[in-house]
Amino acid sequence: MLGIGNLVMTDDGIGVRVVQLIAERYRFPEHVTVLDGGTLGLDLLPRIEDAQRLLIIDAVETGAPPGTLVRLSGEEIPLALETKISPHQMGLKDLLTVASLLGYAPRETVLWGVQPESIEMALRLSAPVEAQLEPLAGMVLEELAAWGVEPENSSSSSVVSPALE
């Protein structure tokens, strides 16, 4: 599970916030990595090269009303990133492209996202996106359950932040 985004750009940080929320509440089996990818782009390649499945959470420009949730998979993902909302999305598109070219592309990739209202410099999510934080976390957990991943409740964090390693 890979949360992408910039926490100081309002709604752009939704992916990281969802991963942090899930990591605070649950412990995952050893074969599941919960990763705060921030804005690292291609630096994440070593972290995903052995992944069979990749679940990405991010803000996604869909043209829908702010707060609208979206699920994309496979070839839909690069197309959605054509309209980038922040600089890190070019890094995400590059990451997925390079992984594919090198033969590291996961067997299955799913992107859960939310239409942002704002990507201005601020630490808080906009109201429509903040209202989707819990529902989006729930959708991510349902996706993982469909993949056979059942986390245990936990109060300790298990998020990996490669920027801090």
Topology overview:
Elements: E1 2-4, H1 14-25, E2 26-27, E3 35-38, H2 45-48, E4 53-59, E5 69-73, H3 76-80, H4 87-101, E6 108-114, H5 127-130, H6 133-146, E7 152-153
Parallel strand pairs: 1-3, 1-4, 4-6
Antiparallel strand pairs: 2-7, 5-6
Helix pairs in contact: 1-6
Q: What share of residues are in beta strands?
A: 15-25%
Q: What's the order of the H and E elements?
A: EHEEHEEHHEHHE
Computed over alpha carbons, the radius of gyration is 14 Å
Question: What is the SS-derived class?
Answer: alpha/beta
Report the biggest beta sheet as strand number plus sense, adding barrel if it closes.
5 strands, mixed
Any overview of this molecule?
This protein has 165 residues and is of the alpha/beta class. The chain has a single domain, classed as HybD-like (Rossmann fold, 3-Layer(aba) Sandwich). It is built from six helices and seven strands; from the N terminus they run βαββαββααβααβ. The strands form two sheets. It has a five-stranded mixed beta sheet. It has a two-stranded antiparallel ribbon with strand order 2-7. The longest helix is centred in the middle third of the chain and has 15 residues. The chain is globular. The two termini are 18 Å apart.
